[in-house]
Amino acid sequence: MSSGCGCLTSREFGILLHVTSLPGVGARGDLGPDAYRFVDFLTSSGARVWQVLPLVPTHQGDSPYLGESAHAGHPLLVSPQRLRDDDLVTNDELDEFIHGAKPGRDYRSAHHQLLMHAFSRYQKGNTDLREDIAEFASDNEYWLPDYTLYRAIKQRHNNAPWFAWPAPLRDRDAQALAAARTGCRNEIQFGVFAQYLFWMQWHTLKAYANQHGIRIMGDMPMFVAHDSAEVWAFPDYFQLDDTGNAVRVAGVPPDYFSSSGQRWGNPLYEWRRMQQDDFTWWINRFRSQLKLFDILRIDHFRGYESYWSIPARCEDATQGRWCKSPGDALFATLSQAMDPLPLIAEDLGEITAAVHELRQRLGFPGMQVLQFAFDGGAENLHLPHNHAECSVVYTGTHDNNTTLGWFHQLAPAQQQRVYEYLGDPQTTMPWALIRAAMASVARLVILPLQDIMELDDTHRMNMPGTANGNWSWQFDWSSLPFGTADRLAHLASVYGR
Question: What is the CATH number of domain 12-494?
Answer without folding.
Answer: 3.20.20.80
